[in-house]
Design goal:
This protein is mainly beta. The chain folds into two domains: 225 residues, Jelly Rolls (Sandwich), CATH 2.60.120; 73 residues, Jelly Rolls (Sandwich). The chain has six helices and 25 strands. The strands form six sheets. Strands 1, 6, 19, 20, 21, 22, 23, 24 and 25 form a nine-stranded antiparallel beta sheet that branches. The radius of gyration is 19 Å and the shape is globular. The mean pLDDT is 95. The structure holds zinc ion (ZN).
Length: 320
């Protein structure tokens, strides 16, 4: 029998010192405040577990579904939901940070997953740039630059525009800057090491830095700039366009202006509507909606004028 019920999720919101109001004003979410930094659209993380919005499983959390209804996710052999999808609105610069990989996180962070992540740029200022990578040539230089606070020399910025897609491996120094709105697809992990926070004070306090752990995990030298950024403006409409396939996930971009049918051939297919509106098998969907087509869903009919980012888990997504 097919699993024909789409799993619609209610997001979890995060308030951050660098957050803004666009998640309410541009995406229409019902959330208060002027410091809304993140919308966790699809998450079963302990720090934000999305609930099913309607239907048979209304009110159940995604982590509950993952544990109790494994058949909806293709009975994958992983002890927790593998991915996390979030929207980020950065009114101010985020701190410069790095994430560990699975091996380091398992050893040093109570068995957590590491964090590989990727960004689709929904909006950013003209002539914008992001911090991706660093300029140290070897471990010695890395330590000298970080411990010596030589941030201007250390930080590598690369130009980025709307519609760009960027993969961030564990060990990559990175920072989102003020004015960016992005959709992030990542491993289900909340482990971040902060390297540098521009010396900013919040309520008189500096935020904690994690220099030793950062130095442990930063890759040296950084991956070259070439091949780090892809732009979607040259891609074909009305098909599933693969943006990345790495060991943990595949991410797709879909720009729809007519009816299409898609075969749901993955363990499960996560979809976030990032612009416009339309329908999936007769269910109305619009910008800001996040949902999952379960395992064995069969064929889905999409219609409307909308842009979506979709993702699926990849095989290597197992505990070590
Ligand atoms: Zn990150």
């Amino acid at each position: 029998m097919l699993n024909k019920e789409i799993i619609f999720l209610s997001p979890v919101f995060k308030h951050n010192i660098w957050g803004g109001e666009k998640l309410r004003e541009d995406f229409g979410y019902n959330v208060e405040g002027t410091d809304i930094g993140e919308c966790w659209g699809v998450s079963a993380n302990e720090n934000g577990d999305c609930k099913v919005r309607k239907g048979r499983y209304a009110g159940k959390t995604l982590s509950w579904l993952w544990r109790e209804r494994t058949e909806l996710f293709g009975n994958m052999d992983i002890d927790r939901f593998p991915l996390l999808i979030k929207l980020i609105d950065a009114k101010d610069d985020l701190s410069i940070q790095v994430h560990p990989d699975d091996a380091y996180a398992k050893e040093n962070e109570n068995g957590s997953f590491g964090k590989m992540e990727c960004w689709y740029v929904l909006d950013c200022p003209d002539d914008a740039s992001l911090v991706i990578g660093h300029n140290a040539r070897d471990k010695e230089e890395l330590k000298a630059m970080v411990r010596g606070g030589e941030w201007k020399k250390f930080i590598r910025e690369i130009p980025v525009k709307k519609g760009d897609f960027i993969q961030i491996d564990p060990g990559t120094v990175h920072a989102i800057k003020g004015g960016f709105v992005i959709l992030e697809t990542q491993q289900n992990s909340d482990i971040t090491y902060r390297i540098y926070d521009y010396g900013r004070r919040y309520k008189g306090e500096l935020r904690e830095l994690h220099i030793d752990k950062s130095l442990d995990v930063i890759s040296v030298p950084a991956k070259s700039i070439e091949g780090t950024v892809r732009n979607t403006s040259v891609m074909k409409k009305n098909v599933l366009q693969e943006l990345i396939s790495c060991q943990y996930y595949k991410v797709f971009w879909i720009d729809l202006d007519r009816e299409i049918t898609l075969e749901q051939e993955f363990p499960f297919l996560i979809i976030s509507v990032i612009d416009g509106e339309g329908s999936v098998d007769g269910c109305q969907v619009k910008k800001g909606d996040h949902f999952i087509l379960p395992y064995n869903y069969g064929t889905a009919k999409f219609d409307g004028r909308m842009q979506m980012i979709a993702s699926v888990p990849n095989n290597r997504n197992k505990r070590l």
